[in-house]
Amino acid sequence: MAENSAGSPFLGCAAFGLNDSVVGQDGMAIRRTDFVPGSVVLPGKSYGSIVVGEQAGRSRVHSGLPWPPEAWIKAGETLRRAPIFCLWRALVEARDRQARWEVGGGVSFPLARILAAHIADLLVRPGEENQIAACLAIPDDLDEYGQESLFDEMKREFDRRKVRGEVRLLWRPVAAGLSWLADAGGDMKSIAVRSNPDDFFLVLYLGPDAFECVPFRLRVRRHRKADNIENDYILLRRERPKGVSSMAGYDWPAGVLEEMLQQKGLDSAGAFWQAWVLFPELWAMLAGRLPDQKDLPRVWGQENGYDFWRPGSEDFEEGIEQAGCRPSKQVQEILKASCEIQGTSPHDRTWLKELNDLVRKTVSAQKNGRMVGMVVCGPLAPSEPPFWLRACFPDLEARGLDTSGPWENREANRLWMSPGNDVIAAGAALFQQRLRNGEPTYLDTLPQYFLLTKADGRYTTSPLVNAEDVDGGKTYTNRIEGFAIEKDRQRLDVVIARGAGHEQLLLTGRGVDLLDQEVGRNAKGLSVGGAGLVRHLVRTAKNRDKALERVRWNTRNIGDPNAALCYGEAYADLWHEQLEGTEERQLSLWQEVKSPTGKVKAETPFRRLTFPFPVSSPQKMLVELQVRIRPASGMAQMEVIPQDTTFLHGRKVFVDYRSMRPCQPDELVSDTRGWPPLEELAPHPDPGIWDDIGELVDDFEKAIPRTERFNRLLKSMYVFLKTPKRYIFPVGGGRIFLPVLSQNGLAGCRKGEELIAHFVESLQRHTTDFQRWENKQVGSLITRATWLYGASPVNVNNRIKEELTRRGVTTRIMEAGSRSLMGTPGLAVLLGCIAKRIQNDGKFVIQSIRATKNVLTLRKSGQDALDEKTADILLKAVLGVIEDYASRAYYKNKFFVSIKLLLYMLRYRKCDERFLSADSERTDEIKEKLKGYRVEMERNMPFNRFINAREIINGTIGYLDYAGKTDFLATLTEYSGADDDNAYAGDDR
Amino acid sequence: MHVPARLHLWPWSCASPEETEDLPSAKASFDFFGSPVISLVEEAEIYLPSRHERFHPLGPAFALSKGRCRLFEMPHGMLAGVMYNGAGFSVHSKAGGEIVRDKVVLSFEGVVPRHEKNAKGEQAESALARTVKSWSNVFDKLLDEARQANKLNESLEWLAVRNHLQQMKEEEKEPLRAVIVDIAKTMHRPLPETVRAARRVLLRERRLLPACRVEETDSACLHWYIRQPGLTTAEKAGPRQRLLGVARQETYNLHENRILKDFLSRCAYEGRQYVVNAITDNPAFRTASNVQEVQTLGTLCTQLLTAPSLEDVTDPNPATPPNYVLLNDMRYRRVWYWYQKLLHQELEKDRFWDWQSRTWADISRMLVSVAIILHLEQLAGSGSLRLSALYGGALRIRGEQALGCRTAAGSETGPLLVERRHEGKPNQQAILEIVHPEQADHHPIVRHLGATGGHLYLVLRPLPPAKKAAPQILIVWAAHTAASAQRIAWNDVYASAVKALHGHQTLLHMDRIPFSPTLHGLVLCSRLDANIHSEEGADNLVLVSVPASPMHWIDALSEDIILALDKLIGKMMYG
After folding, report:
1. With an 8 Å Cβ cutoff, is A723 touching chain B?
2. Which end of chain A is less packed: N or C, by CB atoms within 10 Å?
3. In sequence order, what E strands does A729-775 have?
């Protein structure tokens, strides 16, 4: 992507395999190949040289003759002769894959290398200038990856030929448009263009590799030249094509030939190949030319002999008109072993009708504005409008185009027929000249790529390019934040998404996190308790239908029935999505592409990229990505800029595109199924449960702290808060038990909220002089007050934090803290304290297990409070506890609490992907152990209980494998929940 | 013999019963004319036991009364060796699921040996051996040229081959270039410098040294020291006052120097051989610059071998791979490069000698292709027959010979368009295809001609295809008559080939294959002198005896082979 060095002659080149052209800076053609399809001959060995140009034309290798064997063409066998137009088409279709041409024996060549050899042969002549600045015209739909490989290979080819060469790329239709504007642009007054921004200009390219019909809007740019004179430049504004061109030009003659050979009863791939790739007559007829009679007749090798090839225009006239617009089977059969090319998309109608349709549709797609010009160019373009184009004249004229002849003049508002590639090559040369003079060229839209950033386990996107239009040939720069290098990592992995295909992933990827976000959320038309109840009903149902049925039964008590049902459906979709919808959703993320052989290839819009660093990052480090990109100049250059400048010591680290690999959506989505969603304590929605509490709260307000009355009232409140209340279904008669408060300390109804607020306020006031309280009293108060969960008074929370930092902190305090503390720093202290205790005592007592479990199951930032060391200690400890229970065949509540803790420890994966990664030995070991427990359970548990226990174990293994499901979580809560009740007795001592 | 096998005195003799003998298991004696072949059932294989080389079949399989057979060319070296050692070849066939090996020993009369006594009564290489060696050099040169022209693809345009042959003729005053000449030209200056500054190293070794001279010890020395009786150093040093210490010794006996020394001695030997051979060929070469340079190199190498630094250097171990110095040190790298070339040349010489009849066939094929190129250039428009190439092939030269062959099958030029013109306008057209016997299996017509033993087939197919027009086939036979010490009368050879041609034509008619090709023949015989002789008659066959020396090939081409081809292709066009 070097700038032109001043002084070196620049060339414009259009080499698409037929009538290729190289134009000098004066706009005159320097070199032009004959009207013969171009091909190259590849060596049979990987280190051989590629034979190009006339030498390739003279070579008999895979020429289709019946003798010698090296000339044979056999369908299904690899080829050493590659037609240039097929190479271009294959490169375009490859998009960001590296497509290669197989020559057999395990040897293959990148398509870009072959094309570079062909182009360099045109540009460089031995003994001529050894310094070249060339601008190559490229198809309008060539991917950035293809451009990049073309750049690399051109550089390599120039080096091989000992030429100092600089290469620029320019879109083919833009080049044609620039040529047109050079002459016709002056006819258009800038004021007229400014006042009619919807006016458009059309380029129709008819080439052997593709037929392109590209509209351009026009814009005016004022530019001050070096001599200080300001000028208005009329510029083309290019829009990115939506896909690969649906018509490959080479399929047209191929179809005609197929038909002709069929009529003659000739079933010879060699005969077809010669007429298609080596003989120019049919191509000439397509372009409306007469075949050169002096070269006729030609010797035409057939299956078992030779004949003369002496076609007259009448032989093909009908075939050309009647040929259906579809990919040629013969071409695909012959090429499939070397390079799979899809070619033309199958259409129902003839080529002529499809071409007619292409022009009409393109014009009609331009809703407003007048048509200010049209260029028909390319080697297959005739010198006069063919009848299929004449049939479009009424439409063109209706948009303001003057279609009357003569057609060889470049004038505004008129049709210009420009057969051949000269106009494109001249446009490319003009582009170079404009850039060298610092003049405006054209306006381009850059590729829509998005970088996916993973934070808190979910992906967000940052557009790579944050601008609508950029100047052609100029570099665009952007800085993107939000990336971090993990500690001890020597690379940064990013995911890049093309177009808008990633949006679904973002939704899917957020599945679990959206569930987390729903915890405690209000829903429109529902009370806190009502929304919580809906969620609870959904979560505890086995499937979506049952969940909705349960919601329907309860709408009467929840609030607005419609709102409840609506919210229930939405939440059920989210909750049960992982059970039922995942595969379908993932499938929809792939664009299924049918290859010519009928194989279905999965194309994904996602690519993984890596920035390799010379050293490991000493700590987690935030970085920025600096993106530099130029239209039609290959891949964006992405540089990592770390926040800590001393990290790289001034060295620059760029993305390594060699590491780019497709990334299937499930690789990204699966990350989110590696841990369970948060639990929710759904508060009882019925205000009736608060009926007796008002008085109690009033009394408590008046009570004197540390008195017996105070303790009695506090205990009463504590018992009320801690005891789940029965909830009977209005329809169906089912009953469930719901807690009084949510984990955030919210009551399920307004009355409850008011009472709790009142109570908390009193408690806060009573505990302002905590220093005077005895330790025993403090312990008791903390245990009881923290059943307010997130609503616990600040004084209590502060005291808990204080206690946690002291030596000899009790497990009661820890457990109490796990209920009331909400912030990450406090939780981090708590978990650190638990880990320290485990290290000191070597035991992981049930209170500590419950405390840890509370943090991880109830708090959104619970996993953030863990660090690598703490997580490791806790994991080891909980595994030890499970092992201990299992060895004693104690498959009761405490066992399942520990299993639940193990399961929720997986939420730490959100912070550290390496933690219990799916393919690690440690994970395998845990899975094996769990499987072992499952076997033991069968022997030691009643059958009904075993069925549920097995479901829990299997579900846990599923999460370890990043294939977690939510269906067993209710069972797990049930099996581990009673233990909390047991704890109640302990708390009350 | 467990499988039937027959010996044919000439490659075409399969259809001549009087030139065909059933192979007995006992020793038998036959006349040797240079290119005998063996026909053997398709399932059997023939091996040369000395190198366990499997014979390559000549052309496609053909049907005989004993089943489908293939022809195999005989190695000259084996036949020459039979006279001295009674060596032979072994035939492997399958019987009841097991491989049965038959050893066949044949004795031939008139095989030219590799070495013979010269005028001084010394054992020296025979003229044939020298000629065969020069063939190898020709292919090496062509390969070098091909690499220069196209470094990566190693193929040479036929026009360039023609030019090269022409150049060889122009260099007649000089003996042929060989590897040793290249060494003399390129290594004459660097060799003395390399020997003078030969690499040396200081080796550390433990030795009993006088006690006062011990400067360095190691743990092993200390172990030894503490085991010695006595308390003081003097006591431990014993009556001879010697202690075990580490001594450093300078040595040149390194792998790279071993290679260097061996290279010098091989250069000296090879130089002598080259000079002797050149002078024997032509005493006037004594003053030729190549000879003088090689002579100087030989003298230089002999001198350098006496250098003190190389005195203690031993012979290299053949199994040792090149070390870092040989691969990377600039001086030694060159030595290693040429050393390998020399070794390779020796190996190639042996193989070329063994398979010289196949090499002659290779050369004959090359000469026919060049003749066609010459025809395109020289005879275009001069007669009624006009050849033009539809596509041109390129000569692909192998880096190493494959049973004597240095060119790859499929290198032949063509296909060509042949026109018979009348008043400047073509009135008859045909396509000429050139078929190598190794590819003949793939050709729809030539695959039926395996019994003919042809070394090349030129197939003329009428254009446009006519049902009644039979394809015309010119079979090229290469007879290495120079390898025979028998007195060969060219008219007898011609008669033999004509008879065989008729025989093959009759057999083809009898086989009732879907077409009936008309056969023509061109026999290219080798001879050691510089004369060229053509033998032709009313039949569809021409015999050309071509000098085996590469210098005279272009003469044979431009004088006889091209005319023979013109005549035969003309006949083929007339049907």
Report:
1. no
2. C
3. 735-738
Q: What Cα–Cα distance (Å) separates residue A479 from each residue in A365, A465, A939?
A: 35, 9, 61
Nearest to B499 by CA among B469, B537, B455: B537
Other beta carbons within 10 Å of A273: 28
What is residue B524's three-state secondary structure?
strand
Mean pLDDT in residue range B22-49: 81
Pairing of strands B518-527, B541-547: parallel
Residue predicted with more confidence, A488 or A823: A823
Written as six digits, the tokens of B416 are 């060509």
> What mean pLDDT do residues A497-507 have?
59
Residue A597 confidence (pLDDT) above 60: no
| Contact status of A67 with chain B (Cβ, < 8 Å) | yes
> Which residue, among B142, B99, B106, has the nearest Cα to B31 in the 3D structure?
B106
- Residues 6 or more apart from B481 whose CB is under 8 A from it? B33, B34, B35, B488, B493, B525, B526, B527, B545
Are A305 and B465 in contact (CB < 8 Å)?
Answer: yes
Question: From the candidates B152, B390, B443, B458, which should be mutated to test the interface with A, based on the most A CB atoms within 10 A?
Answer: B390
Asked whether the predicted pLDDT for residue A655 surpasses 70, the reply is: yes
Read off the pLDDT band of A585 (50, 70, 90). very low
- Give B341→chain A minimum CA distance, Å: 23
| Chain-chain contact of A68 with B414 (C-beta, under 8 angstroms) | yes
Terminal C-alpha separation, chain A:
77
Residue A821: which of A806, A803, A808, A836 has the closest Cα?
Answer: A803
SS3 content of chain A, % helix, strand, coil (to 5): 45, 20, 35
Q: Is the ipTM of this complex over 0.90?
A: no
Neighbours of B99 (CB within 10 A): 10
* H or E stretch at B84: helix B76-85
User: With an 8 Å Cβ cutoff, is B463 touching chain A?
Assistant: yes
Q: Does A299 touch chain B (CB under 8 A)?
A: yes
Give mean pLDDT, residues A876-893.
Answer: 88
Query: Distances from the Cα of A271 to the Cαs of A50, A264, A275, A330, B170, in angstroms?
Result: 24, 12, 6, 11, 45
Is residue A893 pLDDT above 90, yes or no? no
pLDDT digits (tens, 9 = 90+) for A319-354: 888 899 999 999 999 999 999 899 999 988 999 999
**pLDDT above 90 covers what percent of chain A?**
23
- For residue A349, give the nearest of A358, A336, A340 by alpha carbon: A358
- Beta-carbon contacts of A518 under 8 Å, excluding residues fewer than 6 positions away, are A535, A571, A574
Greatest CA separation for chain B = 118
Residue A213 forms beta bridges with which residues?
Answer: A204
3-class state of residue A779 by DSSP: helix
Give the number of other CB atoms < 10 A from CB of residue B250: 9
Choose among A283, A282, A313, A308: nearest CA to A296: A308
Model confidence pLDDT, tens digit, residues B460-489: 988 887 766 788 999 999 999 999 888 888
- The CA distances from residue B562 to B522, B548, B557, in Å, are 11, 17, 6
Helix runs in A648-735, H state only: 665-669, 693-702, 708-722
Tell me what pLDDT residue A502 has: 52
Q: What is the pLDDT averaged over residues B329-338?
A: 92
Residue B180: enclosing H or E segment and its boundaries?
A: helix B179-187
| CB of A936 closer than 8 Å to CB of A923 | no
Cα–Cα separations (whole angstroms), residue A470 to A2, A460, A635, A639, B527: 18, 25, 16, 20, 79
Q: What share of chain A in percent tops pLDDT 70? A: 91
Average pLDDT over residues A578-607: 46
